[in-house]
Amino acid sequence: MKNKNILAVDDVASNLDIIVDFLEGYDVIDTTDGYNALEIAQTEQLDLILLDIVMPQIDGFEVCKRLKENSQTKDIPIIFITSKSDAESIEKAYALGGVDYVSKPFRKQELLARVTTHISHKELLDKQIKNAHELERMVKEEVLKNKVQQRQIFVQSRLAQMGEMISMIAHQWRQPLGAISATSANLKLKLELDIFHFQSDIEGAGAKKYFIDKLEDIEKFVQSLTETIDDFRNFYKPNKESQKVTIGVPFEKALAIVHASFEVIGIKVIKEHKSEKIIELYENEMMQVILNILKNAQDNFIEKKIKNPEIHLRCEDKDEGLIIYISDNGGGIPSDDIENIFDPYFSTKSNKNGSGLGLYMSKMIIEEHHNGTLSVTNTDNGACFKIELGGVNHA
Ligand SMILES: Nc1ncnc2c1ncn2[C@@H]1O[C@H](COP(=O)(O)OP(=O)(O)OP(=O)(O)O)[C@@H](O)[C@H]1O
Ligand SMILES: [Mg+2]
């Protein structure tokens, strides 16, 4: 029970002397002034306050009220010590938050017993509060761990589902694509063998060339469709192993996928600073992040009907890893939304069925698999996404 700090407040100094004497073994700070008592309570770590009620400047009730109103001092137990022993005073003392009441003149044994009881109550309470905080911290930690695991499972299963769907489409398309290719090759062959008879030779030569050119175009389109499907199929194959490449590799693959749709609406991609640094990453995941950001820029260009849409790509090598900036001139992200765009299911594309998962997944991929960060800022005329890469996280 040693080393407990008790504050004794009484306007009569001789009463304080008695208290100090009775409470031998405790550290007792004493004061005859209520205001002074309030100050001491702020600066000292007190375990108990013995408080006289009738005092000239500010009475004990008021001191108690102020202590209870202050979050820093509200939990210090207060025992009133006074000669006022009428029922009304006793009631008021408890109503204001006092824990006990000792009448003057008091006896040593009684005072000691009450002080000991309330100090051990306080000790017990402090311990319980500490345990509750510790428990809360542990629960929070577990919930967070759980969340991270769930996110990872979610990303994996979404990738696997997409991969399965693409494989199914590829399977269904293989046969008609083959048929188109065979038909056009057949037509071309017949033209080349002059099996068709045109009315005049001049007309015939022109028509023949025209058809052969167009059939060659068809073959090229078929070829490109087949490659696109393969690209997508590889894209959604979860990368089990990391690769050591320049960042340009996943960039070029992502750009190849969006190339055709970018051309249709005239989006210019400007590569400002390339990086030749070899960096370890999960290529497909990285492609997916780049693709999500590029597609978002495209969606926004279309929605806002931006003239001369442009996307700028810039890399900066760092001692460890590198930084990539992808910026557009699409007007940026409204300030009300910018805090939320990385949240799961946050989307402003309700009409177009945006799932709101693109940036959430991207952030996860960068932060949890690549020791990096993904953030966004608005520039003068658009949004700028910043990807900082620290290298693969093998854990
Ligand atoms: N370059 C950008 N310019 C303006 N707004 C953007 C840009 N990129 C993202 N946003 C905003 O961020 C939101 C969230 O993007 P996110 O990719 O996570 O979801 P989404 O594109 O709506 O749906 P999906 O899951 O199909 O990608 C978008 O709905 C859009 O409002
Ligand atoms: Mg998106």
Care to describe what's here?
It is built from 9 helices and 12 strands. The mean pLDDT is about 90. It has about 400 residues and is of the alpha/beta class. The strands form 3 sheets. It has a 5-stranded parallel β-sheet with strand order 2-1-3-4-5, with helices on both faces. It has a 5-stranded mixed β-sheet with strand order 7-9-10-12-11. The chain has helices spanning about 15-20, 35-45, 60-70, 85-95, 110-190, 200-235, 250-265, 285-305, 360-370, and strands spanning about 5-10, 25-30, 50, 80, 100-105, 245, 270-275, 280, 310-315, 320-330, 375-380, 385-390. The chain has 3 domains: about 5-105, Rossmann fold, CATH 3.40.50.2300; about 155-225, no CATH class; about 245-390, 2-Layer Sandwich (Heat Shock Protein 90), CATH 3.30.565.10. It binds adenosine-5'-triphosphate and magnesium ion. Magnesium ion binds near residues 292, 354 and 358.
Q: In total, how many beta strands?
A: 12
| Portion in helices | 40-55%
Assign the CATH topology of the largest domain: Heat Shock Protein 90
Proper CATH architecture of the largest domain: 2-Layer Sandwich
Topology order in helix (H) and strand (E) letters: EHEHEHEHEHHEHEEHEEHEE
Bound molecules: adenosine-5'-triphosphate, magnesium ion
Euclidean distance between termini CA atoms? 50 Å
Shape verdict: rod-shaped
Q: How much strand?
A: 15-25%
* Largest sheet data: 5 strands, parallel
Tally the structural domains. Answer: 3
